[in-house]
């Protein structure tokens, strides 16, 4: 059997196979990563991470589970989020240092890009899943940014998060969407796991005296009532939707502050 025949018999590497199917908890080979990009997006280099194409990051020793390849925020989007976060952060009066917190680490790719764009920043991430934690910890060792990755539930460990007096805080909020995304109604920010409204309230209460910039990853279609509820928990907010995909299927970021206004 030749290579072309073998390839034609391989299952389609799509979201279903990698996120819900046999590849969910398996380490992907480079060929499988590229096959996912080709089959799902007509681009074998779709899963660009940490400023590298798949062949580059794979050669560095970076490895992904099937589900992480689907759930991670690829470079194109993560870079834009990092730029938009940095633009707002630069408007902070009397800027000092920033601690950037990612409560749902995953690959840490968006956190990585925020750290690249925000000067005088350090990163802290939380990952509850032991398999993802161990793999991401190994991956981060190959990068040019230092991220303090902690294993556990951010909600339980918030009390262990210490900041210096001159540090403001950036919180990147991207919990699992689960059933919160409906293609017709859009993303309900109250039904993510946990709800985005709850995450903002928890950080706001835990760091009431701290100036906080939230960066919430969102979908182009948003439930209007849930968006209004999130706006109500912020002192200032700005919604940005990117244009990498077909209209109606793009991602974006909701930027918002507590304790200060840009």
Question: How would you explain this protein's 3D organization?
Answer:
There is one protein chain. By secondary structure, this protein is of the alpha/beta class. It has two domains: 69 residues, no CATH class; 184 residues, Rossmann fold (3-Layer(aba) Sandwich), CATH 3.40.50. Strand 2, helix 8 and strand 3 form a beta-alpha-beta unit. Helix 6 crosses helix 7. It is globular. The protein starts with a helix and ends with a strand.
Mind sketching the topology for me?
Elements: H1 3-9, H2 15-20, H3 30-41, H4 54-59, H5 66-71, H6 75-89, E1 97-102, H7 109-117, E2 121-127, H8 130-140, E3 147-151, H9 154-157, E4 167-173, E5 181-182, E6 186-187, H10 196-206, E7 212-219, H11 224-231, E8 236-241, E9 251-258
Parallel strand pairs: 1-2, 1-4, 2-3, 4-7
Antiparallel strand pairs: 5-6, 7-9, 8-9
Helix pairs in contact: 6-7
Number of alpha- plus pi-helical segments? 11
- Unreliable stretches covering 5 or more consecutive residues: 1-7
Count of DSSP strands: 9
Biggest sheet record: 7 strands, mixed
Organism: Bradyrhizobium diazoefficiens (strain JCM 10833 / BCRC 13528 / IAM 13628 / NBRC 14792 / USDA 110)
Protein name: Bll8019 protein
